[in-house]
Design brief:
Layout lengths: L2 H6 L1 E6 L2 E6 L3 E7 L2 E6 L4 E5 L2 H8 L4 E5 L2 E4 L3 E7 L2 E6 L6 E3 L1 H15 L4
Antiparallel strand pairs: 1-2, 3-4, 3-7, 4-5, 6-7, 8-9, 9-10
Length: 122
């Protein structure tokens, strides 16, 4: 299966609104708070369901998704900026206003992965 075919496949999530089907490249960020997973899409839609982030991470593994914090899973394709704000690091995204914290443990890995995959040097 090619990378494009993987991105075109849809994943089903059983949300409050009913069963939804999302392509990997539609998902910008996933977060969890008290066993409620929230998915933000690039169209601005927000879906919530009961579960844990590990299950979502396993389903999205190898598709540009990285755990940047214990409660956040992000799509590195949509990183707009990584910035320090009042002593903590956070990630801003294209398409959505939601930001994700960047843990000390994950910061180096995220920056190295993002720079190696998405930036070219002159």
């Amino acid at each position: 299966m090619t990378a494009k075919e993987i991105q075109e496949r849809k994943i089903a999530f059983n949300c409050r609104e009913g069963m939804i089907f999302l392509k990997h490249n539609e998902i910008v960020i996933c977060s969890v708070n008290k066993k409620h997973v929230t998915i933000h899409t690039k169209t601005g839609d927000i879906y919530t369901f009961f579960g844990n982030l590990k299950e979502v991470e396993d389903r999205l593994k190898g598709k540009n998704f990285v755990r940047c914090h214990k409660s956040y899973l992000i799509n590195t394709d949509y990183i707009k900026r990584i910035a320090k704000n009042l002593g903590t690091w956070e990630i801003e995204f294209n398409y959505i206003k939601e930001k994700a914290p960047l843990s000390r443990r994950g910061r180096k890995m995220i920056i190295e992965r993002y720079l190696s995959e998405n930036c070219t040097s002159d």
